[in-house]
Specification:
The structure holds 3 protein chains of 3 kinds.
Chain A: H1 4-17, H2 23-31, H3 36-55, H4 59-65, H5 73-96, H6 104-119, H7 128-148, H8 156-176, H9 178-181, H10 197-206, H11 209-237, H12 239-249, H13 251-256, H14 261-287, H15 298-311, H16 316-345, H17 360-374, H18 383-387, H19 389-399
Helix pairs in contact in A: 1-2, 1-11, 2-3, 5-11, 5-14, 5-15, 5-16, 6-7, 6-8, 6-14, 7-14, 11-12, 11-14, 12-14, 15-16
Chain B: H1 2-28, E1 40-47, H2 54-70, E2 74-75, E3 78-86, E4 88-89, E5 94-95, H3 97-109, E6 113-117, H4 122-134, E7 138-141, E8 171-173, H5 178-191, E9 196-201, H6 205-220, E10 224-230, H7 239-248, E11 252-256, H8 263-272, E12 278-281, H9 288-294, H10 296-299, E13 303-308, H11 317-330, H12 338-355, H13 360-368, E14 371-375, E15 378-381, E16 393-399, E17 402-409, H14 411-415
Parallel strand pairs in B: 1-3, 1-6, 6-7, 7-8, 9-10, 9-11, 11-12, 12-13
Antiparallel strand pairs in B: 2-3, 4-5, 13-16, 14-15, 16-17
Helix pairs in contact in B: 2-12, 3-4, 5-6, 8-9, 12-13
Chain C: H1 3-34, H2 41-59, H3 66-96, H4 105-127, E1 143-144, H5 165-187, H6 189-199, H7 201-206, H8 211-237, E2 239-240, H9 244-259, H10 264-284, H11 290-304
Antiparallel strand pairs in C: 1-2
Helix pairs in contact in C: 1-5, 1-6, 1-8, 1-9, 1-10, 2-3, 2-4, 2-8, 2-9, 3-8, 5-6, 5-8, 6-8, 9-10, 10-11
Classes of the chains: A mainly alpha, B alpha/beta, C mainly alpha.
Chain lengths: 402, 417, 318
């Protein structure tokens, strides 16, 4: 509990600065009496991050000025931000409330398609990203309640199966209801966000409209993520957060002390779904398409779950870290390794064993296994969970008898 | 108490910084290769290299490498650098929209890149086409056959203009699109004596697209459609579906799909469920792997495969040389799409050489003016939409465990639309 | 829908359901003792299928005389069961045992990781020139599994109802294995110990049961069932590919939970329900809706029976 006041102080400190998620730590660190060298180094890192995140989209300009190839940092970061939002959503359900959810892709897909239906030229709504950002979470939350309400009684793995099944049903519906979703063709193009014409013309001088829209998407995603981090960190320390933990640790006891487990579960269901829907709206806008419904399959849900657990179940930072590691592997590290291997080996033999792509799953799978072997609580677990380790064990053993 | 609190805080904080640093490293590591002088013409391909399409894409990449090697690694005065990019992600095991978008952006931002060979999946092309179009970067697909990518009026309303924000055509494909294949398939079926057909598809962009075209063409050709449904390509077997079809007793079953979407299993279950129907499949199954998957005894005498172009062993002139050289180099027969990868790379190199300078628009213009005389695919050029003028379709059957050329299909009809 | 068609679909459903049940038993038993959803189990099934394919190729089974073939098939079934058991026990020892005291979801992630590793190994295996039935080097493409069981219609080829010796072999051998398993769990000392561990690991330990050994034995049995199922299913559908673990695993997991996870009879019932629902949904609604129908029915069942079809209602813990 010693950490609590510090974080409480930190969270509001972030709001005025309105910069990235990491600033919360910047303020208290400056005042904390720590070994001087370390303090300075850390201060520098955080300062650097606080500068780099808002400036990420402009790094390429700088690189171009000195003739270096573009880093595309902002585009990769948008992917990471979206995945991180999904991880936060799942963390709310699995990490805080202890509801094993294997169908987060369903709510993500609902967000993606709601956003697309509200914006594409095929439909008369034309609400643009700003409308979609409001509507997608509402639609997803509605679906969350729809699924959550009848399944309140289900426990553990039975709930896991129902959510998994819901996601499969959703995928098949999206694939087959062609008149609405265009089936495998997907809905596209999802238009770039609308901006007042003055902004467009002002910025038009500095950059092409394509760049401008990319900037808008980047900052919208960053803003949403920062806002979510702040909200979730506050939830962790709030009454609701403790209610979640109580529910997770012992549903009966939490009911005995006057909590309403059904209400709390529904909040987790709807809240997580809403956040996933929000991520979906950003994903569709960033990609300019819904892609095909098979994108949102069981594998996708499993990957989000992996990312939450790798990072550390029940902690905001864990979810963020997990998203960075996972998306980083696929979108950034893999292409780099591929190019590196091609350069050094010149794998022109067609031999299966000499191509990086063919080792990808082994590397990925081994990494998952090793991470769990040596950091079973995640790379960066939540403190609260750790304090209760001692108690968690017998509880687990008892559950086994069910 | 306070001391402990602060120390914990620093600890936490440190790790927070570490995580942020990770995020950043991950982001910034994405930077491309070291800057090089503009004497390098970089060609990249973006194909799904992880997962089930691997066999076909390996064959395509081999074809590309061969073309570059034959050109001596040079296009005019420029040295060619080739990179083989993967548009699949491990977490998806198939092409991933995000990775495809990232590849397209990376190609745009890398000033060395003059041409983008890809994609394998038509769905992926829908994502990268507009991105590359804005940068006037030429995109040559060796495998996309979805009609809406190039042909106005044959896809969704708004296609293909929605993929061309600048209005200019930068997307070319060296394979004939589905509209032709579906039509000649139906005509072939009629000529084979088919009166009734049951149509299945794999619910993918390619499979469903070609099955749609086929259905329309079959009705026009006077073949009665007994039913139409999609199947799950990840299912293990289709016996209950086949039991249902058996009751309807069609002359033919048409499957719009690929070897990867389980065409082999469809063929096996069709036979083992005791249907008398014959099976027709499109070019997505025109690969040795299909015969391996189904077992040749299952396919022999009852399987008909349409293919855009002439099969490798029927190629003459340069096409024949290509097949021989491919066999010598890779100790394997080229898959159906290998020759398209080869041709895509060849015409790209040729266009860069004709453009004569390191300029994307010039390369695109040169590419649009491509006229291959007696190339590996014969003599052809691109039309105003970026489609190949090559409309030759061949029909193939399975004999003695191998594909055997049956005859040219609909070439006379298709040549004069 | 005519009567013969009803029986036909029922037969197809039961045959497939048997195989789902065989895999589901592995899930369910492991869950019973460890509370671990072993997501790698479907992919173990896939590896065992490749193992069977390789063995049959090495034995030249497709050219063997019927008598020799029977002997070879029995040997291959035995070898694959051993293979499955050995791999599963090895995994338990190396991957899961060190996580005994970890949070509940940690082994789940390890299992997912293993599933990726297995699929990659399957790809490599598929890339080997196996010199089997024409051989092949296309890593990802499905491979033909030899069609060794007679596949003629017992009612004559013109009959509208189709029952082949192949169907009978799948059903009868699966039933035999399940009966053996039931006997083992109900009547042997090991079975009793397994039930004890599933019921309460701590109490079991206090009663002198070597819990680790029982867990290892459970993994061995689950792996052997998957290995057995792999041969039988290979002979039935005649296909092996690195992807066959995905949907079989998904359905088997579904079957295990639907029946009441940890419950052995439940896993069998769950497998049959899934097989039959699949078949009739294909017949009546259309193959493209198969999974939607299946999972909708499943959700409805679980809403009304929150602990599965045969699962005992878990008492609230106080």
């Amino acid at each position: 509990m010693a950490t609590e006041p510090a974080t409480k102080g930190a969270a509001p400190a972030a709001t005025p600065s309105a910069t990235p998620a990491e600033t919360p730590s910047a303020t208290p660190a400056g005042t904390a009496p720590a070994p001087a060298g370390k303090k300075n180094l850390l201060g520098l890192i955080v300062l650097a991050l606080a500068v780099i995140y808002p400036l990420a989209p402009f790094i390429d300009w700088g690189l171009a000025a000195i003739g270096a190839p573009a880093a595309n940092l902002d585009r990769h970061l948008v992917s990471i931000f979206v995945f991180a939002m999904l991880a936060l959503a799942l963390n709310l359900q699995v990490g805080y409330a202890g509801l094993l959810q294997l169908g987060i892709s369903a709510f993500f897909a609902i967000g993606v398609y709601t956003a697309a239906i509200l914006t594409v030229a095929k439909y008369p709504f034309q609400l643009e990203l700003w409308g979609a950002l409001v509507a997608a979470p509402i639609a997803a939350a509605g679906a969350g309640l729809l699924l959550g309400a009848p399944t309140l009684r289900l426990r553990g793995d039975y709930l896991a199966l129902v959510t998994l099944g819901f996601a499969e049903v959703m995928r098949v519906l999206l694939l087959n209801l062609e008149s609405v979703t265009d089936g495998p063709r997907g809905l596209n193009p999802v238009p770039a966000p609308w901006l007042p014409s003055t902004v467009e013309s002002l910025a038009g001088r500095a950059a092409t409209t394509g760049h401008l829209h990319q900037l808008v998407i980047y900052y919208t995603a960053l803003g949403c993520l920062v806002a979510l981090v702040v909200v979730f960190r506050n939830i962790e320390k709030s009454r609701l957060g403790r209610a979640f933990v109580a529910l997770r640790e012992d549903e009966l006891a939490s009911a005995c002390v006057g909590q309403n487990p059904s209400r709390i579960k529904l909040i987790a269901f709807a809240g997580g779904a809403a956040v996933a829907g929000l991520a979906g709206a950003l994903y569709a806008t960033n990609l300019t398409t819904t892609a095909e419904p098979n994108t949102y399959d069981f594998n996708y849900s499993v990957m989000v779950l992996c990312c939450v657990i790798i990072g550390g179940l029940g902690s905001v930072r864990g979810a963020l870290l997990g998203a960075a590691v996972l998306v980083g592997f696929d979108n950034v590290a893999s292409p780099m390794l591929t190019r590196w291997m091609q350069k050094s080996a010149g794998s022109d033999t067609g031999n299966v064993l000499l191509t990086f792509s063919n080792w990808r799953w082994i590397i990925f799978g081994t990494a998952l296994v090793l991470m769990m072997r040596y950091r079973p609580r995640g790379l960066w677990p939540a403190e609260r969970r750790r304090e209760h380790d001692g108690d968690a064990q017998p509880a687990r053993a008892q559950e086994g008898s069910a | 108490m306070a001391r402990v609190g602060k120390r914990t805080l620093i600890y936490r904080w440190q790790r927070f910084a570490f995580a942020c640093a990770c995020l950043l490293v991950v982001g910034s590591c994405s930077s491309g290769d070291d800057g090089a002088p503009r004497t390098v013409a970089k060609i990249v391909s973006s194909l799904p290299r992880t997962g089930s399409a691997n066999a076909q894409t390996t064959s395509i990449v081999n074809g590309i490498r061969m073309a570059i090697e034959e050109a001596g690694g040079k296009a005019g005065a420029l040295a060619i650098a080739y990179e083989d990019w993967d548009d699949a992600s491990a977490r998806k095991g198939d092409w991933d929209p995000e990775v495809e978008a990232a590849n397209a952006h990376r190609a745009v931002e890398d000033a060395d890149v003059l041409a983008y060979i890809g994609t394998y999946n038509s769905g992926a092309a829908k994502i990268s086409m507009p991105i590359l179009n804005r940068a006037s970067l030429a995109m040559i697909s060796p495998a996309n056959t979805y009609t809406g990518l190039t042909k106005p009026g044959l896809g969704e309303p708004g296609e293909p203009d929605m993929y061309r924000p600048t209005g200019a055509v930068n997307y070319f494909r060296v394979v004939p699109a589905d509209d032709i294949q579906g039509r000649v398939g139906a005509e072939w079926m009629r000529d084979l004596g088919g009166k009734t057909v049951y149509v299945l598809d794999d619910r993918g962009l390619y499979g469903k697209g070609i099955a749609d075209v086929f259905c329309a063409a079959a009705e026009a050709a006077g073949i009665r459609l007994l039913g139409r449904e999609g199947m799950d390509p990840k299912a293990q077997e289709y016996r209950s579906l086949m039991a249902k079809i058996r009751k309807l007793d069609p002359d033919f079953v048409y499957f719009g799909g690929t070897t990867q979407s389980n065409a082999g299993q469809i063929a096996k279950d069709l036979v083992s469920s005791g249907l008398r129907a014959r099976l027709m499949v499109p070019d997505g199954c025109f690969e040795e792997a299909f015969i391996e998957a189904a077992g040749h005894h299952v396919l022999e005498g009852r399987t008909f495969v349409t293919f855009g172009g002439v099969p490798a062993d029927r190629l003459t002139g340069r096409g024949k040389t290509f097949v021989e050289r491919y066999r010598a180099k890779y100790a394997a027969d080229p898959e159906g799409y290998a020759v398209y990868g080869y041709v895509a790379a060849r015409i790209t190199i040729d266009a860069i050489a004709r453009a004569g300078k390191h300029d994307r628009s010039a390369v695109r213009t040169a590419l649009a003016a491509t006229k291959e005389l007696d190339g590996a695919l014969g003599t052809w050029s691109f039309d105003e939409h970026g489609d190949t003028s090559l409309l030759t379709m061949s029909g193939n059957v399975v004999k003695n465990g191998k594909f055997e050329f049956y005859g040219l299909l609909g070439s006379a009809v298709a040549a004069k639309p | 829908m005519t009567v013969d068609l009803i029986f036909q679909q029922l037969l197809i459903g039961i045959t497939n359901g048997m195989v789902f049940a065989l895999i589901a038993l592995g899930y369910s038993m492991v869950y019973g003792v460890l509370e671990l959803i072993n997501f790698a189990h479907g992919d173990l099934f896939m590896l065992a299928s490749f193992f069977a394919l390789t063995l049959l190729g090495a034995l030249g089974a497709s050219n063997a005389s019927p008598g020799l073939l029977a002997v070879e098939l029995v040997a291959v079934v035995g070898a694959c069961a051993l293979f499955g058991a050995a791999v599963n026990v090895g995994l338990e020892r190396v991957v899961y045992r060190p996580l005994r005291n970890a949070p509940k979801l940690a082994p789940l992630v390890s299992a997912i990781g293993l599933s990726f590793i297995f699929q990659n190994l399957g790809l490599f295996w598929g890339a080997l020139p196996m010199d089997v039935f024409g051989g092949g080097t296309k890593a990802a493409a499905p491979k033909a599994f030899p069609d060794l069981l007679p596949n003629y219609n017992l009612f004559g080829e013109s009959s509208s109802f189709r029952l082949t010796p192949k169907d009978l072999v799948v059903i009868v051998s699966s039933l035999a294995v399940m009966a053996a398993l039931y006997a083992l769990v109900k009547h042997t000392k090991l079975g009793k110990a397994m039930r004890a561990v599933a019921h309460d690991p701590r109490a079991a330990r206090l009663m002198g049961i070597d819990v680790e050994r029982v867990i290892a034995a459970t993994f061995a049995i689950g792996g052997a069932l998957a290995g057995f199922g792999a041969v039988i299913y290979g002979l039935y559908i005649n296909t092996v590919s690195y992807q066959i673990g995905y949907q079989n695993g998904l359905y088997a997991f579904t079957a295990a939970v639907l029946g009441g996870i940890g419950n052995i009879a439940g896993a069998v019932v769950g497998g049959l329900v899934i097989g039959i629902v699949r078949a009739f949904s294909d017949q009546l609604i259309g193959a493209q809706w198969q999974q939607a129908v299946l999972f909708t029915i499943l959700i409805v069942i679980l809403v009304f029976r929150p602990s599965g079809l045969l699962g005992a209602h878990a008492p609230e813990k106080v």
